[in-house]
TrEMBL record:
Entries under Pfam families matching the protein: I-set (PF07679), Ig_3 (PF13927)
Record's keyword terms, sorted: Cell membrane, Disulfide bond, Glycoprotein, Immunoglobulin domain, Membrane, Repeat, Signal
Signal sequence, renumbered to the chain: 1-25
Subcellular location: Cell membrane
Positions of the Immunoglobulin subtype domain: 54-131, 158-225, 252-323
PANTHER family according to UniProt: CTX-RELATED TYPE I TRANSMEMBRANE PROTEIN, DPR-INTERACTING PROTEIN THETA
Ranges where the Immunoglobulin domain occurs: 48-143, 152-237, 246-334
Keyword Aminoacyl-tRNA synthetase: no
SUPFAM superfamilies xrefs: Immunoglobulin
A single Gene Ontology CC term: neuron projection
Keyword Signal carried by entry: yes
Protein name: Lachesin
Length: 415
């Protein structure tokens, strides 16, 4: 209204001035023509440049006018039809705006700490008749911001149910939403298909299971930094389940042995070992140990120096609020191996020398007898060696035949 009033007054002044000039022209026609030729109408020196500014920054519009003379410059916001300034005087109550006159031809509008509501067309106007104006557009870009609602919060579900994760964000331009898992695991979506990233504000997971449990990241981006994300934790509840690799374990008396069970449960389970309906506690002979990894637990029971009373059935038990289960491992006795060493028979020949006075003919006969006896002993040794060689050859042949059979069986299996 103020600006319109000022424009009316200005137009009146123009009319009066024109009337005066007409009267002077009637009296002095030559001087009037000279005056009109010298008088130039104001012109815009250059167009107003459009601006794209991030929220919180400063926007600057420059309106260049040549030969303004006594005319006035005004800045207006077109969409709200608000007069912002006349000359350098600020009309609006927005204290973030200032206007300065630069180099006697540019009227510069500055908007500090730009807000999203500042977006729109801005007009620079000269109060000529008819009025002259030009416009520039301020585009305010806003980095993404994830909304608390309806974005999902941490969720707790039962195994086998369906899950919907939602993520909503605002910004200018409108942000794109991407889902991914914090640890880089695949995301299971409809149709049993798995992807590393999923684009969209709503993520549906059918028949959720324990493998889907973990942190999911909702990431919003629109090209205006910074990109933002929100962490949504998906917790899957299920009753305990036990896995036992070796249900039969053998041990000798005095040996150190270890029994092992693997448990999966969430919420976390209470785990312990039992024998003869009695809970086993940690002591010198028994050492129960647990190793946790997310919803998985490895239960180990070490028995130091197994005794006769330690053989039997051991139970590993796992319980949580959704149920309980147990598994059995049987520890049986293995007799200690007996080492038997078999030595081959040996023959010891004891030679006895007796000195006796005999007839010379008797000496010759004794030498002959000793010679015969020595020959027989030598033959016995040769026979024993031959027999040993024969047995060795038979054993070697049997081993060779066994190796050949094994090789043939291996070839048949491979083919």
């Amino acid at each position: 209204m103020i600006f319109a009033f000022i424009l009316i007054i200005s137009n009146c002044c123009v009319v009066i001035n024109s009337s005066i000039q007409s009267n002077e022209a009637a009296e002095h026609p030559n001087e009037t023509n000279s005056y009109i030729q010298d008088r130039d109408i104001p012109k815009f020196g250059e167009p107003i440049q459009n601006q794209t500014i991030a929220v919180g920054r400063e926007a600057v519009f420059s309106c260049v006018v040549d030969n303004l003379q006594t005319y006035k410059i005004a800045w207006l916001k077109v969409d709200t039809q608000t007069i912002l300034s006349i000359q350098t005087h600020i009309i609006t109550k927005n204290h973030r705006m200032t206007v300065s006159h630069v180099e006697n031809r540019a009227w510069v509008l500055r908007i500090r700490d730009v807000k999203e509501s500042d977006k729109g067309w801005y007009m620079c106007q000269i109060n000529t008749d008819p009025m002259k104006n030009q416009v520039g557009y301020l585009n305010v870009v806003v980095p993404p911001d994830i909304l608390d609602y309806p974005t999902s919060t941490d969720m707790v579900v039962r195994e086998g149910s369906n899950v919907t994760l939602k993520c909503a964000a605002r910004g200018s331009p409108q942000p794109n939403i991407t889902w991914r898992r914090e640890g880089g695991e695949s995301i299971a979506i409809s149709g049993q298909r798995e992807v590393v990233t999923f684009n969209g504000s709503i993520l549906n997971i059918s028949r959720v299971n324990r493998l889907h449990m973990g942190a999911y990241l909702c990431i919003a981006s629109n090209g205006i930094p910074p990109t933002v994300s929100k962490r949504v934790m998906l917790i899957v509840h299920f009753p305990p389940m036990l896995m036992i690799q070796n249900q039969l374990v053998g041990s000798a008396i005095g040996q150190k042995i270890m029994l092992e069970c693997q448990s999966e449960a969430y919420p976390k389970s209470i785990n312990y070992w039992m024998k003869n309906e009695t809970i086993i506690t940690k002591g010198k002979r028994f050492e129960p140990v647990e190793t946790e990894n997310a919803y998985k637990v490895i239960m180990k029971l070490t028995i130091n120096s197994v005794g006769q009373n330690d053989f039997g059935a051991y139970k590993c038990v796992s319980k949580n609020s959704l149920g309980d289960t147990d598994g059995t491992i049987k520890l049986y006795h293995i007799p200690q191996a007996t080492l038997q060493t078999t030595l081959p028979p040996t023959t010891t020949t004891t030679r006895m020398v007796t000195t006796t006075a005999v007839h010379p003919n008797m000496i010759d006969h004794r030498h002959q007898s000793e010679s015969i006896s020595s020959t027989e002993v030598q033959k016995m040794k040769e026979n024993e060696i031959a027999s040993s060689t024969s047995r060795l050859s038979s054993q070697t042949l049997a081993a060779l035949i066994y190796s050949l059979l094994c090789y043939c069986c291996l070839q048949i299996y491979l083919h």
